Amino acid sequence: MKICIAGKNNIAVSVCSYLLKKYPDIPILVVKNRTDNGTDSFQRSFWKFANDNNLPMKELEDVYSIPDLIFLSLEFDRIIYPERFSSSKLFNIHFSLLPAYKGMYTSALPILHAEERSGVTLHKIDSGIDTGDILCQKAIMLSPSETAKSLYKKYIQVGTDLVVENIDSILNDTYTTVPQSSEHSLYFSKSSLNYSDLELDLNVTAFQLSSQIRAFNFRDYQLPKLYGYSVVGACITNDRSTLRPGRILEDDCNYICLSTIDYNIRVYKDRLYDLLECCKLNDLYGLKLIPQLDYYLFESEQTHGWTLLMVAAYNNSIDVCRYLIEQGADVNARNFNGTTVLMYAKDAVLRTENYNLIDLFLENGANPLLEDYSGKNLFDYLKIQSMVLLQYINKKWLNF
User: Fold this and answer.
1) Cα separations (Å) of 185 from 61, 130, 180?
2) Distance between CA 118 and CA 141 in Å, rounded?
3) What string of H, E and C letters represents the secondary structure of the chain?
4) How far, in Å, CA of 38 to CA of 51, rounded?
5) Pfam families this protein is in (predicted)?
6) So what's the pLDDT on residue 197?
7) From CA 346, how far away is CA 390, in angstroms rounded?
8) How far is it, in rounded angstroms, from Cα 333 to Cα 345?
9) Cis omega (within 30 of 0) on the bond before 99?
10) How far separated are the first and last CA of the chain, in Å rounded?
């Protein structure tokens, strides 16, 4: 038996990592996506992970003839033709609750269509597009503030869990399936949306405009634009619109207020980099003046993957750190290299010799044992940098 994982991003990396640990005797083959350049970004590179773990890289055609193959398609970028395989154990993770939303743009379309839920489906691969029999699926409720990116991150986690929970039955050939229903079956092709020429339709209701903004909000690829500004969210007012849709009623540093078919709406401009500067300078007053903080708490800049809390921690901005944590910031977030918030706080403490920052993070659940993508945790770095701080953190952490 051999397992082939074809795909990309965190889901492929996480599933592969799990299989390597649980089934060390089963050979794993890797087929990477054509767009994987071997560099970690907001998602990890499956190609890089495979190289780091000395996994054999294959072309798709190389695995066709393997008779006892288990093939897992995890965000793979090519159509699979089952008749070309010697094995019939071909499985795919699709980011929707099949039979709905077959095809493309499953992070945007459910939001655009005002769905209350989406989900992830593990299914067998047949000759159709996302039409195979279903092994298992899980629903995901969409929040009123759901964006394409936040939904995608949920897909990744739920999809990983589905594979991990069902891999034993796949390996042992004890899984069961059910055919997809024709009812509520939807398919969307690549031409359904044109991201190369993405424009907000302003001749709509306020709710529809808000849905568009959230559906196209995926910072790592694009942010929607309104009158030349990148925008990240919206708030529908109680004021009925009396002017034609799209008419600007107010324009300041934080938002544009405009009319729609029914209600006036405030559309918020992107101010991530202003917030990052506040975090750098410990400017809590300035940070509080910028709206939509709940959204920004889980965003990061695109060069290094720095979150607001990481920047505040590295710069010893303890007032801002405390406030961000109170608002729900993730104290165990990682950047594009897997560097944790606590690792940034460590650097600040080594510079200032003020341990209050470390205390704040440990008190709020920061985990010093989390490893970055090189396999090192906070203690590994401190063994080289400062045994005094290592002993302090270890003693403090054990008391929580």
Assistant:
1) 31, 11, 8
2) 6
3) CEEEEEECHHHHHHHHHHHHHHCCCCCEEEEECCCCCCCCCCCCCHHHHHHHCCCCECCHHHHCCCCCEEEEEECCCCCCCHHHCCCCCEEEEECCCCCCCEECCCCCHHHHCCCCEEEEEEEECCCCCCCCCEEEEEEEECCCCCCHHHHHHHHHHHHHHHHHHHHHHHHCCCCCCECCCCCCCCEECHHHCCHHHCCCCCCCCHHHHHHHHHHCCECCCECCEECCEEEEEEEEEEEECCCCCCCEEEECCCEEEECCCCEEEEEEECCHHHHHHHHHHCCHHHHHCCCCHHHHCCCCCCCCCCCHHHHHHHCCCHHHHHHHHHCCCCCCCECCCCCEHHHHHHHHHHHHCCCHHHHHHHHCCCCCCCCCCCCCCHHHHHHHHCHHHHHHHHHHHHCC
4) 9
5) Ank_2 (PF12796), Formyl_trans_N (PF00551)
6) 85
7) 10
8) 12
9) yes
10) 45
Cβ–Cβ < 8 Å for 97, 142: no
Distances (CA, A) of 32 to 12, 21, 64, 142, 170: 10, 21, 15, 30, 22
Cβ–Cβ < 8 Å for 90, 72: no
75 touches 55 (CB < 8 A): no
pLDDT in tens, the chain (400 residues): 999 999 999 999 999 999 999 999 999 999 999 999 999 999 999 999 999 999 999 999 999 999 999 999 999 999 999 999 999 999 999 999 999 999 999 999 999 999 999 999 999 999 999 999 999 999 999 999 999 999 999 999 999 999 999 999 999 999 999 999 999 999 999 999 999 888 999 999 999 999 999 999 999 999 999 999 999 999 999 999 999 999 999 999 999 999 999 999 999 999 999 999 999 999 999 999 999 999 999 999 988 999 999 999 999 999 999 999 999 999 999 999 999 999 999 999 999 999 999 999 999 999 999 999 999 999 999 999 999 999 999 998 887 7
* All domains in the chain, ordered by first residue: 2-188 (3.40.50.12230), 206-269 (no CATH), 272-398 (1.25.40.20)
CB atoms within 10 A of CB 317: 25
Q: Which residue has the tokens 């975090």?
A: 279
How far is residue 125's CA from residue 283's CA, in Å, rounded to a whole number?
A: 53
Which residue do the tokens 């092994």 mark?
135
